[in-house]
Specification:
The chain is α/β, with parallel strands linked by helices. Helix content is about 60%, strand content about 10%. A five-stranded mixed beta sheet has the order 3-2-1-4-5, with helices on both faces. A hairpin with a 5-residue loop joins strand 2 and strand 3. Helix 1 packs across helix 3, helix 2 packs antiparallel against helix 11 and helix 9 crosses helix 10. The longest helix has about 45 residues. The N and C termini lie far apart (about 115 Å).
Length: about 450
């Protein structure tokens, strides 16, 4: 097999390519797509173009950096001294507070009033001093678990081993609404259906309550056995800390195309995707370059399999050029890159295999509409049934709080309905008793 001849670009073509990005703002991915080159080759041209510029202000820059570093060190020393003074004053203040509360802190169950005062005290001084919860817990002699529990019970009376209230249980109409909704959306699972019903104002119940209703109706399948593999992976804690990428086949009219996507490991948000005719190193690199241009300033860790597109020198140079890190999964174990593998299975099950794809352009329209739905509307089980876009934007706590308020309001409404029924029964009983007494007097 003869090798493809190496293409040559003139100095004018290289200059136009660099200026189109630097002056006109054309994305690097678009420049590489037009010329059919790897992004690494463009960055080499840009490096050559900028290497000849004279470093006129190099001495002044070094002098400014040293002066700035001295100022930073002085400010850090002052902040450290300030923290020590604040901690010392707060220690004396807490000792006085503990004397006021006396023996209340030594009993097994602290009264609700003292508990709420301690929570208010810690919240107030934590915000003003910048000290963490563990410092206050050590000062008060509390565990962090107890402080978290106190915050959850803030404003509520102590009800230890209280009786389970029955006036907020689901009525028959709500149970039937849950069963009917699950029958129409069986493929989404009971957890996703629980949050979908809350968001669509169909029924207000927690996933555990929905599970009990469906289990009583015999509509749930037996849970599969769990596996112990893959427990050592540390999940990302912030957006764009891990990016997963992989290639999947899509068959359109007796021809295979290659679906390449980049998935954020924290939120499961699809950063970028493309349906290409080839899966060579240039195709993969252009997709990755476009993803980095969409989210500028991030330095994620790439997680890929051991395909030749990800193990070659060009991809490693691309990673080093952008200051990224790269981790390859275990051979013959696709679960190591399970997040993007799961997405490939989901998009094929819910979109590609349900549609008749006519050509590449038609497939891009269908896939693009589904990914927009996946990112912005579909409730993802790994995000506690929050859409990936909401998880990425940090709106998860607000959505959870709204759902909890709806469930709480529904419980109060059920209690009111039960109370009305009891009042009606009492009135009816009183009326019958009065009639009976009146008849006896006659």
């Amino acid at each position: 097999m003869s090798r493809r001849p190496r293409r040559r670009f003139s100095d004018v073509q290289k200059t136009k390519a660099v200026l189109s990005h630097v002056q006109d703002g054309v994305p690097v991915s678009q420049v590489c797509e037009d010329l059919g080159i790897h992004p690494n080759q463009y960055y080499d041209w840009q490096k050559q173009a900028f290497s000849g510029l004279p470093h006129v202000f190099s001495r002044d820059t070094i002098r400014q950096e040293r002066s700035h570093q001295r100022e930073v060190d002085n400010l850090k020393a002052k902040l450290s001294q300030k923290d020590e003074v604040i901690a010392e004053l707060l220690t004396e203040h807490i000792a006085l507070k503990k004397k006021d509360w006396g023996e209340e802190l030594k009993v097994q169950w602290v009264s609700a009033s003292v508990r709420d005062q301690i929570v208010d005290f810690i919240s107030h001084w934590k915000q003003r001093s910048g000290l963490r919860d563990n410092w206050f817990c050590r000062a008060f002699g509390l565990s962090q678990e107890k402080l978290i529990a106190w915050r959850k019970r803030y404003g509520l009376p102590n009800r230890h081993n209280g009786a389970m209230p029955k006036d907020s249980w689901l009525c028959a109409k709500e149970k039937q609404a849950i069963i009917s909704f699950f029958s129409l959306n069986r493929g989404d699972g009971y957890r996703r259906c629980a949050y979908m019903m809350i968001d669509k104002d169909v029924a207000y119940a927690s996933p555990s309550t929905v599970y009990r209703v469906l289990k009583e109706a015999g509509m749930l399948q037996k849970k599969a056995d769990d596996t112990s593999r893959g427990k050592g992976f540390k999940q990302p804690l912030v957006p764009h800390e891990h990016w997963h990428t992989d290639i999947s086949y899509v068959k359109i009219e007796h021809r295979f195309y290659f679906f390449i996507c980049v998935l954020d490991g924290y939120s499961r948000y699809i950063v970028h995707w493309d349906l290409r005719e080839n899966m060579k190193e240039n195709d993969v690199a252009i997709v990755q370059q476009t993803a980095l241009e969409k989210i500028p300033g991030v330095h994620p860790r790439y997680i890929t399999d051991n395909g030749k597109q990800f193990t070659g020198k060009e991809f490693q140079y691309f990673i080093a050029l952008h200051g990224l890190t790269h981790v390859r999964t275990s051979p013959y174990y696709p679960q190591s890159n399970g997040k993007v593998e799961r997405f490939h299975g989901t998009i094929k099950k819910e979109c590609i295999r349900k549609k008749a794809l006519l050509d590449q352009d038609h497939a891009k329209i269908i896939i693009g509409s589904y990914i927009a739905f996946y990112n912005n509307q579909r409730l993802h089980s790994a995000n506690a049934y929050i859409a990936p876009a909401d998880q990425l934007a940090g709106r998860d706590n607000k959505i959870h709080e709204g759902r909890r308020k709806k469930i709480h309001a529904a419980r109060l409404k059920r209690k009111q309905n039960v109370l009305r029924e009891e009042i009606k029964l009492n009135k009816l009983e009183y009326k019958l008793t009065s009639q009976k007494l009146y008849s006896n007097q006659l």
